[in-house]
């Protein structure tokens, strides 16, 4: 009977182990699903909608194959459509039937500008071949520029990839994102594009079947050993033998030890022999079980209980109707790194045109002046580099259109200083440019700002919902610089910790003392006047959490040195002479310094005052008074 149970255990174990292994092999099914994307018409770009990538759950693997180096990037769908607004491309979407479809998209024709009536009445305008050729050339050039626009390196993308036989793995784009695939913007986009999703192929009963089968196999082996042991003990049926003669007992005490030989007093027990064989039989069972256990992964077992839920954390909810932030954290860091690299090259080469590709406004004007001075004064100071990493603050504008901007704070770990900057993008095809840059005060405490993933709305220049409208901040602060406590705006601004006012007052006193030490002014033959005004650069403001705003403005400080004697002249120092183009002037000289200043302007119901956050100053221009 033991052999019957052993055979039954062996058979059942084989069936269970085989079923478990089959679930993990021949019955497991495919581990991924792939969808092919094709286009009937060639185009330099292919835009794959996020709905195509999110047809199935899990990460997506995008693979594009073609000749040469291929390019792919992803970003917000609306941004990519704006970037492709003037280009021909294939758009891949999901149709109503759930199938992938490709649509050939061409730019909408633009209305031609009305012709000049004078030109239409001039016979030469219609007969001159040269004039006709000039009229056609701009259109051809514009078409070529659009067709050849390389998407690589655009600040609009959240991330980008470039390699031969392009492979992106993995992607997990949320709703509202799309992928752009191209070559170089001129050659057709890759024709072989596939999207692959992993499939959930869990086999929760494979593990238990294999383990229980292993246990039954061990039981079968045990029963088989017991059966063999039972048969050996019985030795089969015994017959009745002949009667034996009566023997007398032997007294072993009379036998010498030498005669005893090597006869043992007790025979070896059966238990010792059996235990050795049992150990030999159990070893293969343990080894097989270990191998079976090692082949079972987590998805081969049933999962009991609910999935762990992350603990709730404090969050900031975007206001209803607020638009998406202009950039992400990684995008802002990448953009500022590119700006810093370009500006560093421009600083080294004193190339204003190169600087203009990544700077604008007050920041560019200060750089241009520095390059002009360094080209004429050998030891003139080089501008401070742009602090790109790490970024401690990233406050993007929440805006879906253009121009869009972002305020960032970068730190320099060596000098332990921080800079606050404004970066702006004019349109989808332009790079971000640095328009304002200033050094943060050492004791500056920034107001509470919205997180990067939400962003902040821009405050209009004439907004009445602040203590002072952004367009009035520069003029009000300039009035305080000139008039101090006598200014009507003095009570609106925080004086404690305002190092800019202190430094301007000290600098004016020093320059006036130097001016008065000259022989000319000792005889009262000249005057030096100071005047602060709002600069020509427009203000920029982003809202803070507590209904205030960070406002960046431009202030100009102008020094006017004029002679009061017809025989006197104004002698210019090397810096002013390099900009004005004259070492002295009989009519006088004006020197303008540009200040880039950041303020925190609270809301009208706040008890706080307008607080200086940071500033930078640089000479802007010098002119001889005509």
TrEMBL record:
UniProt xrefs under InterPro entries: DUF8094
Organism superkingdom: Bacteria
UniProt-annotated stretches for the region Disordered: 101-143
Chain ranges passing through the membrane: 205-226, 279-301
Pfam families in the cross-refs: DUF8094
Coiled-coil region list: none
DUF8094 domain: residues covered: 324-623
Protein name as it appears in the record: Glycosyl transferase
GO MF assignments: transferase activity
Keywords: Membrane, Transferase, Transmembrane, Transmembrane helix
Comp. bias regions, Low complexity: 116-143
Source organism phylogeny: Bacteria, Bacillati, Actinomycetota, Actinomycetes, Micrococcales
């Amino acid at each position: 009977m033991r052999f019957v149970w052993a055979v039954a255990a062996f058979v059942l174990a084989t069936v269970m182990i085989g079923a478990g292994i089959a679930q993990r092999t021949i019955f497991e099914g495919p581990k991924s699903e792939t969808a092919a994307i094709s286009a009937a018409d060639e185009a330099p770009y292919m835009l794959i909608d996020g709905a195509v990538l999110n047809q199935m759950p899990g990460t997506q693997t995008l693979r594009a194959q073609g000749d040469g180096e291929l390019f792919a990037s992803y970003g917000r769908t609306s941004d990519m459509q704006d970037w492709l607004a003037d280009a021909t491309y294939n758009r891949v979407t999901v149709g109503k039937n759930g199938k992938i479809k490709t649509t050939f998209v061409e730019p909408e024709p633009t209305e031609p500008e009305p012709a000049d009536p004078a030109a239409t009445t001039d016979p030469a305008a219609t007969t001159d071949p040269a004039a006709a050729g000039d009229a056609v050339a701009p259109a051809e050039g514009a078409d070529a520029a659009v067709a050849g626009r390389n998407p690589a390196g655009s600040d609009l993308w959240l991330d980008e990839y470039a390699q031969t036989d392009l492979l992106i793995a993995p992607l997990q784009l949320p709703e509202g994102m799309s992928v752009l695939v191209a070559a170089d913007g001129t050659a057709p986009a890759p024709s072989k594009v596939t999207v692959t999703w992993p499939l959930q192929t869990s086999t929760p009963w494979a593990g238990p079947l294999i383990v229980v089968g292993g246990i039954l196999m061990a039981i079968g082996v045990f029963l088989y050993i017991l059966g063999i042991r039972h048969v050996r003990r019985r030795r089969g049926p015994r017959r009745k033998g002949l009667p034996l003669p009566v023997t007398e007992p032997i007294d072993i005490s009379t036998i010498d030890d030498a005669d005893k030989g090597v006869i043992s007093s007790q025979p070896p027990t059966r238990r010792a022999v059996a235990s050795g064989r049992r150990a030999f039989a159990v070893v293969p069972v343990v080894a097989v079980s270990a191998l079976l256990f090692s082949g079972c992964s987590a998805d081969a077992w049933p999962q009991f209980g609910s999935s762990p839920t992350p603990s709730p954390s404090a969050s900031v909810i975007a206001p209803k109707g607020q638009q998406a932030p202009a950039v992400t954290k990684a995008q802002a860091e990448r953009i500022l790194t590119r700006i810093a690299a370009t500006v560093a090259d421009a600083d080294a080469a004193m190339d204003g045109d190169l600087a203009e590709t990544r700077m604008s406004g007050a920041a560019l004007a200060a750089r241009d002046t520095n390059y002009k001075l360094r080209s004429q004064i050998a030891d003139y100071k080089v501008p401070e580099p742009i602090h790109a990493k790490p970024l401690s603050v990233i406050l993007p504008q929440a805006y879906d259109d253009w121009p869009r901007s972002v305020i960032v704070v970068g730190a320099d770990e060596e000098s332990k200083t921080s800079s606050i900057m404004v970066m702006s993008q004019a349109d989808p095809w332009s790079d971000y440019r640095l328009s304002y840059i200033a050094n943060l005060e050492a004791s500056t405490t920034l107001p509470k700002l919205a997180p990067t993933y939400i962003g902040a709305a821009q405050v209009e220049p004439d907004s009445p919902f602040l203590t002072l409208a952004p367009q009035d901040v520069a003029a009000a602060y300039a009035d305080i610089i000139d008039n101090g406590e006598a200014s009507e705006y003095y009570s609106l601004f925080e004086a404690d910790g305002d190092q800019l006012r202190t430094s301007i007052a000290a600098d004016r006193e020093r320059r006036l003392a130097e001016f008065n030490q000259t022989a000319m002014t000792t005889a009262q033959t000249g005057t030096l006047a100071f005047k602060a005004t709002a600069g020509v650069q427009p203000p920029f403001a982003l809202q803070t959490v507590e209904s205030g705003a960070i406002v960046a403005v431009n202030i100009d400080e102008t020094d006017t040195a004029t002679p009061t004697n017809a025989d006197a002249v104004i002698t210019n120092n090397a810096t002013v002479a390099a900009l004005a183009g004259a070492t002295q002037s009989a009519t006088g000289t004006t020197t303008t310094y540009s200040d880039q200043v950041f303020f925190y302007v609270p809301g009208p119901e706040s008890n706080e005052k307008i607080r200086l956050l940071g500033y930078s100053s640089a000479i802007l221009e010098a002119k001889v008074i005509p």
